[in-house]
Amino acid sequence: xxxLSADEIRRIYTMKDCLxxxxxxxxxxxxxxxxxxxxxxxxxxLMGANTLYMPAYIEPIHYTAVKVVSIFPQNAEKGKNxxxxxxxLTEASSGEHVAVMDASYLTVLRTGAVSGVxxxxxxxxxxxxxxxxxxxxxxVGQIQAMMEVRSLSAIxxxxxxxxxxxxxxxxxxxxxxxxxxxxxxxxxxxxxxxxADIVICSTRSSTPVFDGSYLKKGTHINxxxxxxxxxxxxxxxxLKRSDKIVADTKEGVLxxxxxxxxxxxxxxxxFDRLYGELGEIVTGKKKGREHPNEITFCKSVGSAFLDTxxxxxxxxxAKQLGIGTEVNFRxxxxxxxxxxxxxxxxxxxxxx
Length: 352
Hints:
This is Ornithine cyclodeaminase. The chain has 352 residues and is α/β, with parallel strands linked by helices.
């Protein structure tokens, strides 16, 4: 079994790689070649946290995986990571468990790549100003993806705690030292949204983070932060003004997207307004952006088939490059069998 750390994954697997793999994963999903049970979420009410268990199988690549992600917001105050994850990858032809890898960075990458694929098909080609609301760990992957699929000239950051926006500003500058664009910290979310061609919502908010009336015509929105029924980043105005509303998977948003579920419960919105799934657009079954004035919105709650795809590619690349730590559990299993046989023989002798 190969063990891979986040640093090792960073060394060998780029956002460009991830965008290609995530787009292919959506094709497999749309072709009915993935199996993804609904993820199990275990809440930790005392900590305001939760742990997600996410299995999936992709038939064409013969891999299955289980990802476990814990999200503990209070960790930020303790100097610990808010998002922590691990993934077990299994080769589905033999059932051999071939890798265990850090899933925190993997999750940031693939979540960013989902928004990147959505932006590729739904945002205007000339989009160059990106507003990011919520400057936590996931925001880094979102910006990486936007930089790959569009030629940005400016990034606007807004966070309720300004210091988080300042930290992200420094991180992005360090990641892209030769980029000539500007990175500014916005005084409020609405003004940042009004200036944007692309809006990214990456928060755990239970109330909308901006007023949809501030959206310009032609804006594309990626909503990735609210992934539970009680969370809501996007308001009803945004839903009503959006010409195309797309989900990463319809099943996922029907169960988990508070952005939709809350207005549905209130009787102010219906899932009939959902234009389609991202896989339908990637495969050409439905059109992406058709007009420069369209407002488009892609809602993503995440799906484990994406993690399985990305993890399999990381594993294959690591094997090719000789990256990671090999751990062999098989001798231990053999020893256990020998011990069991010896114990059984000893027990039988004692019974005679």
